[in-house]
Amino acid sequence: MEQQNDKSLRAMILLLEDPDEHVFTEIRGQLLSMGNEVIPALENIWESTFNNTLQSRIEDIIQKIQFNATSEELKLWAATGGIDLLQGTILIARYQYPDLDEEHIRNQIELIRKDVWLELNPNLTAFEKVRVINHILFDVYHFTGNTSNYHAPQNSYINNVLESHRGNPLLLSILYSCIAQGLNIPIYGVNLPEHFILAYRDEFMIRDSDEEEEPILFYINPFSKGAVFSRREIDTFLKQLKLEPNRIFYESCSNVEIIKRQIRNLITAYEKLGYPDKVVDLKELLNTINYHADSSY
Predict the structure, then answer these.
(1) In total, how many domains does the chain have?
(2) Is this prediction's pTM over 0.70?
(3) Is 103 exposed, middle or buried (0-12, 13-18, 19+ CB in 10 A)?
């Protein structure tokens, strides 16, 4: 019975080369509805055929199935509050790298986290904890900002950043905060215009309401090897940009906002490189998050 199903599926896929546009559209729709489970059969026929039209159509369908799967996962992630920041950034990387090994990425970050943990002790101050993270990330692992190719898309994909040890402010901040939060160190992203930084929350102060100012001890700039600075530097930066101070420029943002910014960075990168198809895809992913996001975090 299974062999018969395989033959029927193969026959359906071969119909993709039918010159009748209506036949192609119907078969394409049926295959897309099957999702990831049909990809191995599509790949087998792609490898065994010399028909360029069939190969091209199979490639298009595989890419669309993978995109739909990523979009659905991102929708669920956003709708449930985007609790796991690392999961969000892995999903964005999966857009470009559908066969991404998530476990490998998590293992790489866990190794760094353990190296930081070994250097920590309960008596360290907040500043001393940051100094330990900085030492491991920037002196031991040699992560650095990619200043020579700042807008390259590779700087916005976590797998590339872990491989090259180079990234943009946002991805270095994501890596930094994931490691810190994995050690129960309260370091979170701050959505500063034209830059992205981190804030070290005062873990001993609790706000009575969201109307109160968030208790921040200091700020961290992972793009400058973890340089620590105060609110005053943000004031100066905003003046240089001719922007009025706003609470969102000083306080931590949600994981959903971080991933939305990651997508916007990629849209800008691909616009500069002239990849309109990727721009369309990423705008669709951004719309998916905007529609389904839960603002709580």
Answers:
(1) 2
(2) yes
(3) exposed
- Identify the domain boundary among 55, 78, 101: 78
Q: Are the C-beta atoms of residues 85 and 178 closer than 8 Å to each other?
A: yes
Dihedral angle sign, alpha carbons of residues 74, 75, 78, 83: negative
The whole-angstrom separation of Cα 55 and Cα 128 is 57
Which tokens belong to 145? Answer: 């900002």
- For residue 203, the model assigns a pLDDT of 78
Q: Are residues 157 and 29 in the same domain?
A: no
Residue 282 CA: distances (Å) to CA of 55, 137, 263, 264 = 25, 30, 6, 8
Instruction: Give the domain-ending residue among 78, 98, 133.
Output: 78
Report d(CA 27, CA 18) in Å as an integer.
Answer: 10
Instruction: Tell whether 194 and 240 lie within a shared domain.
Output: yes
Contact 86, 182 (CB under 8 A): no
Per residue in 174-195, pLDDT (tens digit) is 999 999 999 999 999 999 999 9
- 134 and 148 inside one domain: yes
